[in-house]
Structures are given as C-alpha cells and as structure tokens.
Amino acid sequence: MKDLFAALCLVAVLEGLLMFAAPLAWKRMAERLLDMPSPALRSFGGLVLLAGLSLLWWAKH
User: Burial letters for 5-21: b for 16+ Cβ neighbours within 10 Å, e otherwise?
Assistant: First the structure.
C-alpha cells in the first residue's frame, strides 16, 4: 500500500512539474487531447498503461 501511495504522489509531482515548467505547452497538449476521438485516446491510454506496467515489472525484477 505504501508503494501505491508513493507512486500516486510521484505522478502528482510529475504532473505539477510539467504544469509549472511549461504551462503553455501543457495547455496546447490538453487542447489537442480534446480534439482526439475517444478510440484514439483509449488506444494511447492502453499503450501508456502497458508501457508503465512493463517498466514497473522491469524495475522490480
């Protein structure tokens, strides 16, 4: 449970860092995401999910 909480905190730190360091780029990215069709977002989300799980497995083993 501690690892899950630490991971969620790290996600918050990274999101905050992106918004702090490059707010205009973050806004442009958010606008582009709104224009994307839902199936494309779902596919991209699945790829990011698989990449994250793979990297997590690699880091733990």
Answer: eeeeeeeeeeeeeeeee
Nearest to 46 by CA among 30, 12, 38: 38
Question: What's the whole-model pTM score?
Answer: 0.67
pLDDT at 19: 94
Residue found under tokens 């780029």: 25
Across the range 3-9, mean pLDDT stands at: 89
Q: Give CA–CA dist 29/19, Å, rounded.
A: 11
The answer for residues whose C-beta is within 8 angstroms of residue 44's C-beta and 6 or more apart is 36
